[in-house]
Amino acid sequence: MSDKDSNALEEQRLGALGYKQELNRVLSPFHSFSVAFTYLSPMVGIYSLFYLGAGAGGPRYIWLMFIPVIGMYFVALIFGELGSHYPIAGALYQYSKNTVGRRYGWWVGWFYMMALLVTIAAVDTGVVPYITDILNSWFKTSFDPSKNTTLLLFTIGLLVIQTVLNITGAKMMGRIAGIGAYVEIFGTIGIALILAAAGFNHGFGFLFTTQGAENVKTNSLQVDFGGHWWLGAALIAVLAHAFIFYGFESAGDVAEETRNASKQVPRAMRNALVIGGITSFILVGALLLATPKDPAGYAKATSSTSSVAFILGNAIHWAWLRDIMLLAVIFAFFSCGSSILGASSRMLFSYARDGATPAYKAISKVSPRFKTPVNALLLGALVPLIFTLLVNITPNKNVKIGFFTYPAHISALLALVSFGVSGIYLSFLLTVIGALYARTRGWVPAGHFTLGAKGMLINIIALVYLVVMLINIVIPTGINSPRATLFNFDWVTLVIMFAIAIVGLIVYLIAQPGKHEQHALQKDR
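Above: the chain's sequence. Below: its structure in token form.
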């Protein structure tokens, strides 16, 4: 079937679902995969979280990777089936809206969209130290990434570039993601091969050891698991993987711009997750084997202050190769942020097109020249910028707020970023619950990709995984516990989730989505 015929069929399918084709259907299967893969981004995840996994759990943490990869594969199967049946921009919002109802879908989309916008702020601020490092090296500048002004200026610059490029068309977004996918391969498999060529410091058996991570005296992060690995260190270390393996669903966000979307979107989701799992395992394994043999060197390589940069610097002594790796890391962060911005803008567009947001007419406007939701993109960049300003709020001592304590030296931005993961898992869980609800009421998937008789079992497995992992992410265990010290700050993550829900309620009451939806859809037709 030619692209023209395929696009015509997809437009007919879109029309049957109540929408007309406004966006430009130009993304190839590779571009669809690349958007999903660069959002998942093994490089960004591992370079940011290696210390959490290796520091909390020791080398053995690598094997915990199979838990979120397999668990999320079942989720990807459910999303693939939904994305094939409902190949509409907005993905999780549209899936839940169509399986359960308009109000339910609105709330699923709200939590997901806010998590996306938070993640953009996290990714774009997270790359600043790498950018300043290479600029200071090349041009002898003295940028300090720990300064809020430096962080804000570079983040603004990144958001401007990402927004402008996204505005120019879906094809540009696809090209950036495509280059990003190749960079990810180099930054994972390529770096692993370079480390292997430089010479590993340990044998394969090292990957089955804990290096005393379960005991506070030998734990690189100086947290105490009371001598328990499986019921202590492993519960924390597994999150270094769980925080990476999502983003594949973004292929569904750009479904209306993907050729033969009903077939390609589910495939892109699965491929992004599987290839992400393989490349991540290879890189994590290589980094662990390249850690120094001496206890002090190992502790530094798995600490929060040195981690991957120390391992690479210790193993690779060529300045030019170091710069290439830095550039690869920077572009991986950039393409990741660009893909998330593209996905979040399509979510905003999908909401607005249904009349489900304030100022829905303006937000749903599509550029007649570029065929992109320009105002949704601008808003999708503005909100993360506002979030970035929260870096200026960093208390010097613990602050007692009602029933919980806000920890010292944790910026409001870092606390908000904790919602970037919990919000994703919450919206995933609600979407999977919606699919299960639809099955019990007789829903029969009719897209190109279906799960058949196994659909109910796969749905239940996906549900169980998401429930267990979400609890592990958000459960408060005391302000001085390893969990609170390293990522969820005791009650803070749950409080932020509640605050996001309150803001959502205000937006919902202002938007009155039920009042405007029918008018918006009639106009769209």
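Residues 521-525 have pLDDT under 50 and may be disordered.
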